[in-house]
User: Fold Multiple sugar transport system ATP-binding protein from Roseateles saccharophilus.
Amino acid sequence: MSGVNIQGLSIKFGHNEVIKGLDLQVHEGEFLVLLGPSGCGKSTLLHSIAGLIDVSGGSIHIGGADMTDAEPAERGIGMVFQSYALYPTMTVERNMSFGPRVAGVPKAEIERRVARAAEMLQLTPLLSRKPAQLSGGQRQRVAIGRALVREAGVFLFDEPLSNLDAKLRAELRRELKLLHQNLGNTMIYVTHDQVEAMTLASRIVVMKSGVIQQIGTPAEVYETPANLFVAGFLGAPAINFVSAQVGADGRSLQGVLPLQLAEGRVKAGQSLVLGIRPEHVRLQSDGRWRATVQLVEPMGNHQVVWMKLGEQSFSVLVHDGRRITAGDELAFDIEESALSIFDAGTEQRL
Assistant:
């Protein structure tokens, strides 16, 4: 088991700096997820840890050793890519054992590793099959198993579930989490899917334009986002953003949701953005505000109700069985203790 310590990492492609002086400490045995939109640098960062991309500055230490300029084979990592990249003419067993065979690991040891990985990934009955005889989920299990037989200190996953359908993604998410619980190895996982990040991670690293925006547990980045970007990226349906202006008394908010804030939290005349999660809105007959329903999305065990609040749409999660239709006027209130407040200029949390 190994930790990863990245200091001042910079990566440039030509004149384009895609990673900008990045510092990151990955603790031994944790499941760290790199989360962000396409082009934010998360896969580039992962590939630099694997040694697949040359860095322009800074250092990468794995297990306490400086691996900044080391070859991939020297880094003690196992990697799973988005594409399965299996050898089509080899059986599952031969695909999984390819790396150790090339490295000259004794046959008995290879057999032990393959048998262990196959059992954990439910691949034992499939060891004699070839990739063409497997489903997409089974092929991705083989790709994961090929990384596991290396018995590496750090496992790297580059969006390994993105090619699978929703049901298979959910199944493999659970298997990956159980795998981490059983192995206890350090795992670094790249995704743009917030559900994967929230369900898998010990900690989440939210990235934008090559810069880390926030690091924290799933609960921390969801409940106390550091800025507007993090708040808007996490959550489905997305957080509601409402503009407000602080009154002359330094406490009252002017806008579509007039509120009274604790003294000293904001300044008179300050422009704010209120972040309100849909689950923190309560539809109730004695609510302080009223809005008209635009759209109702039935989701099985709950409904997403979209209302017109001023000039913007405002979403609410409704978990009871009440019938709501477009055009209804509803009263609502919000849980002020769960409110996120951001400075409109800096976009940072206050």
Summary: The first strand starts at residue 4 and ends at 13. The radius of gyration is 24 Å. The chain has two domains: 4-232, 237-343. The helical segments are 42-50, 92-102, 107-120, 136-148, 166-183, 194-200, 218-223, 228-233.
